[in-house]
């Protein structure tokens, strides 16, 4: 094993714990930045280019028919193929946390649409499910198994917020283990079925799952209820006959008590387990080799790399599998750095360079990583365990420009040409500036409904005065589709009754009494 430090040219603050990596045709994409995307890259997806120990980032485009994808951190992610040996594939993303600390229950499919020397375009589509739909969660895993010529996705574990009835102001962000149910998801028919197995008694999160053919191995994980990292090793076998699926679970010996470990594949049957935590305040610096052969699993300790003093003494670490036996690791930067959120990054290569020419790896891997604050399970932004996916196959990307908010070379088309609503009429081929502030891209505004999504200001019939007022004021905006729903959810304001002073009754004027001489004098003057 070899460990090499890499330097981030710019915008290293975007690479925070909780990110995921996607790989299409040897290009590695970063997903899950901290905070909401900026105008320079509204998709929140970047191409990573690592050459000569330097990491550069370039914004990625979404196709016009793509849906909005929020920057989800700690989601479950895996690669989906039509069959175990198919060349074409796409990625499944489920759950995760938004920058507002909300949990997502949506499922997205991401695929490669086009690739040129200058630009790469992805497509993102949201999928609807029926049946036993999994609740919103994070820190879980999803894998794809193949049996009898059919395939199905398997979702397990994770954490979610406590039920509303059990939440108070002080414990509003408290999280609990999800029920240890196994969900089988058939995307062809859009249905989901949950299974309760007697062998799975406690909920798990930030575990490692490895899928091969019709079998999934679940290793490690953390249980909030018992505050333990279980040493159990579970074997899930999925049989897909013509009728109902059959799901069985077997508890195997030889497990490892670890949470938030990273798995990378070094051959068709061998994997390397890196990192993780023994306990809340103890990192796991030991590496293991996992061998899968003939429906059996073997876990042995392997030679660990020469960890640097910074890695040994840091309190937390995070990372993600980059494929081909390489792992991207990150540790918190020094507090005296110019950029406070910057981190240090390393590439761990778990196999020799001569082995990098092996055929593309086909085994599904899904793993989770962490930087949980000891003794604190509150789901704050940077004090949680982090989920990672080990689906990427390499990091040899073509020459890419460094991501810079001031560089507008590719930003004119980055995510601005999506279909924001049913009546969207913004077309890249026919669009002309509508507002005086527009130059080469349409003005957009963020709708605060749910996880949030971007819409075109012109499609929302916003005047230029109103658009400027919304951009300057610190208020939430709701698009035409969600404004009525938001009004229905708002609590009516209490109307204060104005106290009016009681009106005084009018007093009757007393008639003046005139003497007889005065009356005679008045009549005399009247007739004179």
UniProtKB/TrEMBL annotation:
Database matches in Pfam families: RAG2, RAG2_PHD
Gene Ontology CC entries for this record: DNA recombinase complex; nucleus
Gene3D superfamilies per record: Kelch-type beta propeller (2.120.10.80), Rag2 PHD finger (3.30.160.290)
GO BP field: chromatin organization; V(D)J recombination
Intracellular or extracellular location(s): Nucleus
Keyword field: Chromatin regulator, DNA recombination, Metal-binding, Nucleus, Zinc, Zinc-finger
UniProt domain Recombination activating protein 2 PHD: residue ranges: 415-492
CDD domains linked: PHD_RAG2 (cd15569)
SUPFAM superfamilies recorded: FYVE/PHD zinc finger (SSF57903), Galactose oxidase, central domain (SSF50965)
GO molecular function, one term: zinc ion binding
Amino acids binding Zn(2+): 420, 424, 447, 453, 456, 459, 479, 482
Location (main, coarse): nucleus
UniProt cross-references to PANTHER family, sorted A to Z: V D J RECOMBINATION-ACTIVATING PROTEIN 2 (PTHR10960), V(D)J RECOMBINATION-ACTIVATING PROTEIN 2 (PTHR10960:SF0)
Similarity comment: Belongs to the RAG2 family.
Protein name as catalogued: V(D)J recombination-activating protein 2
The organism of origin for this protein: Chloropsis cyanopogon
């Amino acid at each position: 094993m070899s460990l090499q430090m890499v330097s981030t040219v710019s915008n290293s603050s975007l690479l925070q714990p909780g990110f995921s990596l996607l790989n299409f045709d040897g290009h590695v994409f970063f997903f899950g930045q901290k905070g909401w995307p900026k105008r320079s890259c509204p998709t929140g997806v970047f191409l990573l280019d690592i050459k000569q120990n330097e990491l550069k980032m370039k914004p990625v485009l979404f196709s016009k028919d793509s849906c909005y994808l929020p920057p989800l951190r700690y989601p479950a992610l895996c690669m989906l193929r039509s069959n175990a040996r198919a060349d074409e594939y796409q990625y499944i993303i489920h759950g995760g946390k938004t920058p507002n600390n909300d949990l997502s229950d949506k499922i997205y499919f991401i695929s490669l649409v086009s690739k040129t020397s200058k630009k790469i375009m992805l497509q993102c589509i949201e999928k609807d499910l029926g049946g036993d739909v999994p609740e919103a969660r994070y820190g879980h895993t999803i894998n794809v198994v193949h049996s009898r010529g059919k395939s199905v996705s398997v979702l397990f574990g994770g954490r979610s917020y406590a039920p509303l009835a059990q939440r108070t102001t002080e414990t509003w962000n408290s999280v609990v283990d999800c029920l240890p149910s196994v969900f089988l998801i058939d995307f062809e028919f859009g249905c989901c079925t949950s299974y309760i197995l007697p062998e799975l008694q406690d909920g798990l999160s930030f575990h490692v799952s490895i899928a091969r053919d019709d079998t999934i191995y679940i290793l490690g994980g953390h249980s909030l209820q018992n505050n333990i990292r279980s040493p159990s090793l579970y074997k899930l076998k999925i049989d897909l006959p013509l009728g109902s699926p059959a799901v069985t679970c077997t508890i195997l010996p030889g497990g490892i008590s670890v949470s938030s470990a990273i798995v990378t594949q070094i051959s068709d049957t061998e994997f390397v387990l890196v990192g993780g935590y023994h306990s809340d305040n103890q990192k796991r610096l030991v590496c293991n080799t996992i061998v899968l052969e003939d429906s059996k699993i073997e876990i042995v300790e392997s030679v660990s790399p020469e960890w640097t003093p910074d890695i040994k003494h840091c309190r937390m670490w995070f990372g993600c599998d980059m494929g081909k036996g390489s792992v991207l690791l990150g540790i918190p930067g020094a507090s005296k750095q110019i950029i406070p959120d910057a981190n240090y990054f390393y590439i761990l290569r778990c196999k020799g360079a001569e082995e990098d020419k092996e055929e593309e790896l086909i085994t599904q891997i899904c793993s989770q990583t962490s930087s949980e604050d000891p003794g604190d399970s509150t789901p704050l932004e940077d004090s949680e365990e982090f989920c990672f996916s080990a689906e990427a196959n390499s990091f040899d990307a073509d020459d890419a420009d460094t991501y810079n908010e001031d560089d507008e070379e590719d930003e004119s088309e980055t995510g601005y040409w999506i279909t924001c609503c049913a009546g969207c009429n913004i077309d890249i081929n026919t669009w002309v500036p509508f507002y005086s502030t527009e130059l080469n891209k349409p003005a957009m505004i963020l709708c605060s409904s749910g996880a949030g999504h971007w819409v075109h200001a012109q499609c929302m019939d916003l005047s230029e005065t109103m658009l400027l007022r919304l951009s300057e004021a610190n208020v939430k905006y709701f698009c035409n589709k969600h404004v009525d729903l938001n009004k229905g959810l708002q609590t009516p304001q209490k109307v204060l009754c104005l106290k009016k002073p009681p009106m005084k009754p009018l007093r009757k004027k007393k008639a003046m009494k005139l003497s007889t001489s005065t009356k005679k004098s008045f009549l005399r003057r009247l007739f004179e």
